Amino acid sequence: MAANRSSSADRRARIEQMRKAERARERRTRVITLSLSGAVVAGLVGFGAYVLNEESKEKQQQEAAAKAPIKDEKTWDAKTLGREHVTQTVAYPMKPPVGGDHHQVWMDCDGTVYKEPVPEVNAVHSLEHGAVWVTYNDKAPKDAVEALEKKVSRTPYTMMSPVKDQAGAIMLSAWGKQVTVDDADDPRVNQFFTKYVQGPQTPEPGAACTGGLNGMTKK
After folding, report:
1. What's the order of all strands across the beta sheet hosting 74-75?
2. pLDDT for 5-18, tens place per residue?
3. Which one, out of 23, 141, 162, 219, has a CA that is 20 to 30 A from the CA of 122?
4. Model pTM score
5. Does the N-terminal peptide bond of residue 200 adopt cis geometry, omega within 30 degrees of 0?
């Protein structure tokens, strides 16, 4: 009987040890889980703060670019640029034109790249809606043209087309604004886009850049 009691006591002791060991493992698991969760949360908070900080920096840079003057930019007084709808050809005093009387139908300018010249009277209407118009002639480097086509194609309220008889190799136009560059890498390209795509110069902000002439139909 004494031997049986001793064996039973040993079993209870071993079971109690196993239970203690299991409880210890559970405590360690909880500690590890809580530590990892805390690390993940801290990482997410830190990443979120980093993203917000970067977005804030980008916004500040865009605002600064929008306020800064663009080197060698030409400006025309908006008050002197006609805005009447006409059906006849208009003799614009600059090429490409940056404003003036124009056709009642605008060119599609929702990141639209035209491989052929577009009617000026329709393009000017797009500028009135806040579009930036990128033009180039035969002197423009092929790689620059391709880079600008990619930029335009992913930027709403922009369009691009060749203008063979313009003075500069690459020219950017908005309503009453124009700048000439030699390459797509010129920092003034991004500055011009940031400043004038639906910028403060726009006579009709928010007006459509789709549903107009698409280069496949006649005026």
Report:
1. 74-75, 177-181, 170-174, 132-136, 158-162, 110-113
2. 566 676 776 767 77
3. 141
4. 0.72
5. no
